[in-house]
Amino acid sequence: MLKKKIYFIIFTGLLISFFISSYYIYKYDRYEISSDNIKNHHMIKSDQKKYWQHASQFGEEINDKKNFFKTGQEYKFSYLPDKIIFIFSSLVKFKLVDEAGEVKITKKKISLLIFQSILYYISLLYFYNEIKKTYPPNTSLYIMAFLSFEPTIILFHSSFWTESIFFSIQIILLTLIIKKSEKFLINFFGGFILGLLILQRSVAMLYLFPIIIYYIFTFKGNFIKPTLFLICGYLVVVLFLGFHNFSRSGVFYVNSSQSKDSFYKYMIPSIISKKENIKASLAQENLIIEENNWVKNNKINFKTEKERLKYYNYLQKKSLMIIIENTLISVKHIINKTLHFAVLDPLRHVHFFHKYEYKGKPETRYYKSKTHQKLIPYRIAYSILFYGVCFLGFLQLIREKNINHLLIVILSVLYFTAMTSWIGNTRYFTPCLIYLSIFFGSGLTFLRNFKRTY
Known about the structure:
Blueprint: H1 2-28, E1 31-33, E2 39-41, H2 47-63, H3 81-92, H4 110-131, H5 137-149, H6 151-154, H7 163-178, H8 184-200, H9 208-219, H10 224-249, H11 257-266, H12 268-276, H13 280-297, H14 305-325, H15 327-341, H16 348-355, H17 370-399, H18 403-420, H19 430-453
Antiparallel strand pairs: 1-2
Helix pairs in contact: 1-4, 1-5, 2-3, 4-5, 4-7, 5-19, 7-8, 7-19, 8-10, 9-10, 9-18, 11-14, 12-13, 17-19, 18-19
């Protein structure tokens, strides 16, 4: 009976994702002329547009029989998304961009959204088959229901952001990890899946270390073999990535350039502003002057990827130096941004991203709009309710003495929080929900048992 309920929940979630995807494609697969007279596709703008353009270029290079390891552009964003887009455009036979490099209007692009949804809900089935061995039936049911219907998660399946496939890979990896198997194939495959997680979004590059800590506590004196198997699978993908970058640029590197300049873009101007008591815009101008002087003195040629990497390394080193020199200001900044980061925002990064202008005049954007201000109390209430249930789930796992799962959830949430919370963007919190689903499901079980007791 429980299995039928789980299958019904998962199938219903899949149908809802199909419906939402169809709605968004019907309504938002079109262009707008924004208030600043810029032409933007409603669904595919910002970094998404770059992925589609890169996918188109990659396809042209493949069709021209170019050596695969010479294809592509600088590893600035995630490695995998443009390859997936190209594969689907080839299979379903639709053109990605027009002669001007603008995203083509075609309903065929829904095929990618359908694939994302199917992959995600298949990964849930795989996850369920593992957690049912550990958790009470009701807890498994609650976890599956949360992962199937939680709006912050489910809406990403109907967008062209990188999150949906990232979630699926997360769930597959988490399932392999909690198997607690010392077998070569399971751990090697786990390392390989971790590598795919990195290719989908580079934020996962150091996630290997929380997993190793989990292995040490889980396997205790027998942790060396499964850890080595895991690392071997991980290295297969990471070395492949590094070799591709080396073949194209002449430099072996595995960290995206975006990860190197992100502190400089999103954090350093604010720190300088507070340190010198000046406006952030002025701090930004001063940084640009220093940056331009460094580029001039070091004769950086931005036309070559090798030279650009020197520039990104400079920005990274400079950023870390400023953060260390201004530790107190940096900590305050991170705490403030983390509080924003942790407030759930189910509609912003898909529904309102499609509906509102990406750039343009401030009054035409979602951020600080009347709708945004109106929803803040509801978001806070939803977040408090969610974290309250998760806390009860934390207590429930302690009560059940399920320390291993408790550990992997905490390590994973701390990792993704540490990697992205300082930006303050609520979108980057969403991967944490995959792990917190275990706390949430266990929390509902805690409430159920408490109600029965009293």
